[in-house]
């Protein structure tokens, strides 16, 4: 299931960047994510 894990990771990173960009526009500090 490695390929599924990689796809999930790519989606996670994409969502993370999108959410943080959105929060920057609202002048809200970026969410702190646990480093895994």
Concise summary:
The protein is mostly helical and 36 residues long.
Description of the structure:
With 36 residues, the protein is mainly α. The chain is 67% helix and 0% strand. It has 1 helix and no strands. The longest helix has 24 residues, at 2-25. The mean pLDDT is 79.
Distance between the first and last residues' Cα: 18 Å
Spell the H/E element sequence. Answer: H
Mean of all residue-level pLDDT scores: 79
**Shape descriptor:** elongated
How much of the residues is beta strand, in percent?
under 5%
Low-confidence stretches: none
What would you call the structural class? mainly alpha
Tally of separate helices: 1
Summarize the topology.
Blueprint: H1 2-25
Quick tags:
36 residues; mainly alpha; elongated
């Amino acid at each position: 299931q490695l390929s599924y894990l990689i796809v999930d990771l790519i989606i996670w990173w994409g969502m993370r960047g999108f959410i943080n960009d959105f929060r920057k526009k609202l002048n809200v500090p970026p969410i702190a994510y646990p480093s895994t």
